[in-house]
From TrEMBL:
One of its GO terms (biological process) is thiamine diphosphate biosynthetic process. Belongs to the TenA family. Pathway: Cofactor biosynthesis; thiamine diphosphate biosynthesis. GO terms for molecular function: thiaminase activity. Keywords: Hydrolase, Thiamine biosynthesis. Catalyzes an amino-pyrimidine hydrolysis reaction at the C5' of the pyrimidine moiety of thiamine compounds, a reaction that is part of a thiamine salvage pathway. This is Aminopyrimidine aminohydrolase. CDD domains: TenA_C-like. GO terms for cellular component: cytosol. NCBIfam families: salvage_TenA. Residues 9-212 form the Thiaminase-2/PQQC domain. InterPro entries: Haem_Oase-like_multi-hlx (IPR016084), Thiaminase-2/PQQC (IPR004305), Thiaminase_II (IPR027574), Thiamine_Salvage_TenA (IPR050967). Its EC number is 3.5.99.2.
Length: 218
């Protein structure tokens, strides 16, 4: 079994919880209140900018030039998606130019930046993998449930994450992670799993915080 296969088995209960979250269930049905999606979008714009920086940093730390190239393309991809969403949803929803990150958003982006800067390289790669893989799984699942939901206002979001272009990036990220895991020690593989699990929990927290429109307590 590859590292990614055994890791997915490990986090399946958490993935099931993510699918059941009200944010994702209501986005799927098109009933998610606009202001919650708007909050999510603004936080996600901040997230994607920081995620792009983390991917760039990982790119610069890679040993093989193939991996340098892949991660710099992932970094550009994150910024391009941010721009595309900016053009679309930002205009229609009237989102602000400068976003103050929520506590959960800041926790998640800083976790990724910290791993990218100071973690072992294979651990840093495992930490960013849920951003690809969980979104792909959630995007595909929601897309598969769209038959009886015409004119879902969240169609562009669903199309982005269930689409072919994103699928290619996810596939490549999975292959690179398995390649790094293969030459890693047992304890390094365990550290990768811990980072993957942590980032997956932070994905859950990001959706939860968006649904609650999380504020700073002070
Ligand atoms: C919080 C979050 N995680 C992952 C993605 C997809 O890269 C996204 N847009 N937002």
């Amino acid at each position: 079994m590859t590292w990614t296969e055994s890791t997915w088995e490990h986090i399946t209960p958490l993935y099931d919880k993510i699918i059941e979250m009200p944010f994702n269930q209501e986005l799927m049905k098109g009933t998610l209140p606009k202001e919650k999606f708007k909050f999510y979008m603004a936080q996600d714009a901040y997230y994607l900018g920081e995620f792009g920086k983390a991917l760039s940093m990982i790119s610069s730390r890679m040993r093989s030039t193939e991996h340098v190239l892949a991660f710099s393309q992932f970094a550009s991809g994150a910024i391009v998606v941010e721009r595309a969403l900016h053009e679309g949803y930002f205009k229609t929803l009237g989102l602000p130019e400068n976003v103050q990150p929520s506590p959960s958003c800041l926790l998640y982006t800083n976790y990724l930046l910290n791993q990218a800067a100071y973690g072992n390289i294979e651990t840093a790669v495992a930490a960013v993998l849920p951003c690809f893989w969980i979104y792909k799984k959630v995007g595909d699942f929601i897309y598969s449930q769209q038959k009886n939901i015409p004119n879902n206002p969240y169609k562009d979001w669903i199309d982005t994450y269930s689409g072919e272009e994103f699928a290619k990036s996810v596939q490549l990220a999975l292959e690179i992670t398995d390649e790094l895991a293969e030459s890693a020690s047992r304890s390094a593989q365990q550290e990768m799993l811990t980072a993957f699990e942590m980032a997956s929990k932070l994905e859950w927290m990001f959706w939860d915080s968006a649904y609650r429109m999380e504020k700073w307590a002070v």
